[in-house]
Specification:
The complex is a heterodimer. By secondary structure, chain A is an alpha/beta fold. Chain A contains 12 helices and 14 strands. Chain B is 78% helix and 0% strand. The chains are: A alpha/beta, B mainly alpha.
Chain lengths: 320, 252
């Protein structure tokens, strides 16, 4: 069952320099019960898409159903059935975590007693017992982020939007947050998150979309996407003198299992079908031709390679 | 109905947050208190009492009360800019909460605080020897509170539009100083040359100060009183209506 379905969803802004198309016709489908990631560099249109899907921004074109309701015709119904956690979060630091949660539940028009029970449930579920009654201004980044997510879950929505949930967190808090997100998914909540971290998309998401310049360039599970990139990558470091690189390029290009050879200064990059069986053969071939090898590395394709393939740019460079 | 319950819920919440730092209530009282303590004594010899039961404070205190209402309320917009940055405004937008409740809840909280501040200020003025008509003072507060609501709504809406303290602060400075001086808060504008009296007539606060002065003297039949109340009602309706539209549009 699809919990989000969009057709041609687009958004353009009028600026002084003319019309900027931030999102250019996004078609996608998110199924119930999955963690769906929206991966892309900053400014790719991730947040804009998420803001449209969570009723914060009116699309300029296209259609969408979110949590069973038409986004354009029934935004109020959509709102009742989604939780949204923005990058800023939205914690009122002058109150305690518990008070934030009770107020948030009350805003969904449940009575005080129910709101209190719900706050307590969320505090237990997200392991916030130790700090829930302290003022939110004393929270660490990871603690505040957990409260943000709890706020988004205050009315137990079937669908939760998380905008860059781990940006700015230390590695430990990040791993912890991933666990919490997986737990929510296992309890039946569908999660839609944006990220510009490759490892996050890879480790956390069941399925993902890669978006660049407002267009979806790839969609699938992390594994399928990586398999679309031709096999594994073997990186060879060679002596740059006396034409060893050219020689090796010609030699290895002839091997049957090598799909593609790329030269990058003193580095030779081979796209091969099965890296573990290719390595010994590459070494033997180089040895017999007396080419001296300095370094060798085997890598499984990463989502960055997928991005590189689709856009011609590296997401790592974009982020840097 | 939902608007009322949502407003009440947010009002209680805003009030609770404010009462946790009660020092802020006193901080905005600081300037008006300085005027009462350090400036009013200069007026004793300048202003000739207009009757047996009056003194310099009778004409000065109403001005300071209006000043408190003006400044306290015009600066509240800063808080919505920080809420905007913290994502609180956006978090409320994705809940089904009535779009106007965050505005009305805040303005109501500000009105309550303003009332408390005015009471403290007037009490201090009585301690310092203010002679004034008791019911006139009460009616003056009835006049100043809706003015505060109007200005607070205006301030929140402008804050929401500008989204940045750096833009908001100079804008406030630009308007408040001339409005303050033209309202005759510090000295009655009857001392002013004709052109300055003419200029003052474009400031709504000039009429509000006149009304509170008449009320403090107990001149309930003075035309200034009617003009003041009429003006405040119009001002409150216009400002709240406009601010509500800004809130609705910015948080649709």
């Amino acid at each position: 069952m699809a919990i989000i379905e969009t057709r041609g969803l687009s958004k353009s802004f009028k600026s002084r320099r003319g019309v900027v198309e931030a999102v250019k016709g996004v078609d996608m489908r998110v199924d119930e019960g999955e963690i769906f990631g929206f991966l892309g560099p900053n400014g790719a249109g991730k947040t804009t898409t998420m803001r449209m899907l969570s009723t914060l921004m009116q699309p300029t074109g296209g259609q969408a159903t979110v949590a069973g309701y038409d986004l354009l015709r029934e935004p109020a119904k959509v709102r009742e059935n989604i939780g949204y956690v923005s990058q800023a979060g939205g914690v009122d630091i002058t109150m305690s975590g518990r008070e934030n949660l009770i107020l948030q539940a009350r805003l969904y028009r449940v009575d005080q007693a129910t709101a209190k029970t719900r706050a307590q449930e969320l505090i237990v579920a997200l392991q916030m017992e130790d700090f829930a009654d302290r003022f939110a201004k004393t929270y660490s980044g990871g603690q505040k982020r957990r409260l943000d997510i709890a706020l988004g879950m205050a009315h137990r929505p079937p669908l939760l939007f998380l905008d860059e949930p781990t940006t700015g967190l230390d590695p430990q808090s990040r791993a912890h947050l991933w666990e919490e997100v997986r737990k929510l998914r296992n309890e039946g909540t569908t999660i839609f998150l944006t990220t510009h971290y490759l490892d996050e998309a890879d480790a956390l998401c069941d399925r993902l979309c890669i978006i660049d310049n407002g267009v979806i360039v790839a969609e699938g599970t992390p594994d399928t996407l990586k398999h679309q990139v031709a096999g594994d990558v073997v990186t060879l470091g060679l002596d740059t003198r006396n034409g060893a690189i050219m020689q090796a390029q010609a030699l290895l290009g002839k091997l049957s299992f090598v799909r593609e050879v790329q030269v990058d200064k003193d580095i030779l990059r081979l796209y091969v079908e099965r890296g573990e069986t290719a390595l010994p053969q590459i070494l033997r071939a180089l040895d017999s031709a007396d080419i001296v090898l300095q370094t060798i590395a085997l890598a499984r394709p990463s989502l960055d390679d997928v991005f590189l393939r689709q856009t011609g740019r590296s997401l790592r460079e974009e982020a840097a | 109905m939902r608007l009322l319950t949502d407003t009440w819920l947010l009002f209680k919440n805003y009030m609770m947050s404010t009462l946790r730092q009660p020092v802020w209530i006193l901080i905005s009282l600081f300037t008006p208190i300085c005027y009462l303590l350090l400036f009013a004594p200069l007026l004793d010899k300048m202003i000739v009492p207009s009757g047996p039961n009056t003194n310099a404070l009778t004409s000065f205190t109403p001005g300071v009360v209006v000043m408190l209402g003006m400044f306290g309320s015009l600066f509240v917009g800063f808080s919505i800019i920080s809420d905007l940055r913290a994502g609180i405004v956006e978090r409320l937008r994705v809940t089904p909460v009535s779009r106007l409740a965050p505005l009305l809840g805040r303005a109501l909280r500000d009105a309550c605080l303003l009332l408390v501040q005015c009471l403290l200020l007037v009490t201090l003025a009585f301690i310092l020897g203010l002679k004034a008509d008791f019911w006139g003072v009460v009616l003056s507060l009835v006049l100043v509170i809706p003015m505060g609501i109007a200005l607070a709504s205006l301030s929140y809406a402008v804050g929401l539009m500008l989204k940045s303290e750096d833009a908001f602060a100079p804008l406030l400075n630009f308007f408040t100083t001339p409005l303050l001086l033209l309202s005759g808060v510090l000295l009655p504008l009857s001392l002013a040359p004709d052109w300055l009296q003419g200029a003052a007539k474009i400031s709504p606060f000039y009429y509000i100060v006149n009304a509170t002065r008449a009320l403090f003297l107990g001149d309930f039949s003075d035309n200034a009183v009617w003009i003041g109340f009429g003006l405040v009602i119009v001002l409150a309706v216009l400002c709240v209506y406009w601010a509500a539209n800004i809130f609705r549009r910015a948080t649709a």
